[in-house]
């Protein structure tokens, strides 16, 4: 297990969100070191670190920074619109260590030569917005943000921008549309790759909260030290949000690759095992848009490539555990209902298909299902994401639509008998035990 955390070393302190505690625990030393280096040197350290984006796509941060046209980057945007059910790692960092996020953002701005940065944060994070705004004001007062930072010739302005609560704004081009004051509709790529045509039509870098929070440590300790943790392309540590039918739900910062899902779920110092020592039925490895995993996948490492090869993704860092008493019909229906509600409505497969899936799933859940509904569900899933494979075939502007079939297809393929039992009985077979809790609710 990890000897010393990187992004969570302060979060259990009562005053971890204050400037005083941040400075007392080495805060802003990474920024001071970065300002003593050239921009190219800072970018090189991030590239050597092999820091994968922690927002879901897992694209290397250093490579994203390098995929820019020759014109200078105009804007840096930090994506804090963490909106997927059961995903709460960025929420933790925003609330408990906002100065670390600000320091990482300023380091990135310096490395990219950006003078205007935005942190886009989910509007429902009331305490997080309050603390991040207060930290931003403290950072300005400490000269960690603003003009001639720490006596250097580098200046940057930082804006905290609350969103309006749309899940789709977690997609970077929708986020940019929202920042511009428009409705959060995804943009067509190409031509609207943010690094080419982003905020206000200018080259823009969009990175995740956890990605930014790693930068102070990387600059202080070097990219090689970060890359020495984990294995292969999955370097460093990563925050995981563990929930569902486990004894110790919560957040865990773990070394990638060398830690397995079995470790995360069953280790007494981590998840602690299944509630009531029941058997595991399934678990979602990377947010509710990811295909489900099952008992045979427990020994997979928390490794982006290994999880992808097995047919899913680490995604948002959310691991949701379902035990033998979890109803797969209700679990997959609730996920589908969320996506249907959060579809922006721009693309027909997502707008219409999600509604059809939700209606059929609700019919089964409420006891009016028919055996032929299972084939109908898979047929609609195939229309949204041809082949119903992972990664999904793209039929919409963003990946929300093709991700919708994941939970339904996983549940039907592995728990078909339970769907048929649900249909035959005309009600949930688990209802009599009153144990529909956790992931099944």
How would you describe the overall organization of this protein?
- β5 and β6 (234-235) form a beta hairpin.
- The chain is globular.
- The protein is α/β, with parallel strands linked by helices and 441 residues long.
- Mean pLDDT is 93; it is low at 433-441.
- It folds into three domains: 19-228, Rossmann fold; 231-323, Ubiquitin-like (UB roll); 328-440, NADH-ubiquinone oxidoreductase 51kDa subunit, iron-sulphur binding domain (de novo design (two linked rop proteins), Up-down Bundle), CATH 1.20.1440.230.
- The chain has helices at 19-24, 29-35, 39-49, 61-66, 89-96, 98-112, 126-141, 172-179, 209-221, 223-227, 261-266, 304-309, 328-342, 348-365, 373-384, 400-403, 405-425, and strands at 75-80, 116-121, 157-162, 204-208, 230-231, 234-235, 237-244, 250-255, 280-284, 318-323.
Low-confidence spans: pLDDT under 50, at least 5 residues?
433-441
Gap from first CA to last CA:
32 Å
The CATH architecture assignment of the largest domain turns out to be 3-Layer(aba) Sandwich
Mean pLDDT: 93
Estimated structural class: alpha/beta
Summarize the amount of helix as a percent range.
Answer: 40-55%
Sheet with the most strands: spatial strand order: 3-2-1-4
* Number of structurally distinct domains: 3
| Count of helix runs | 17
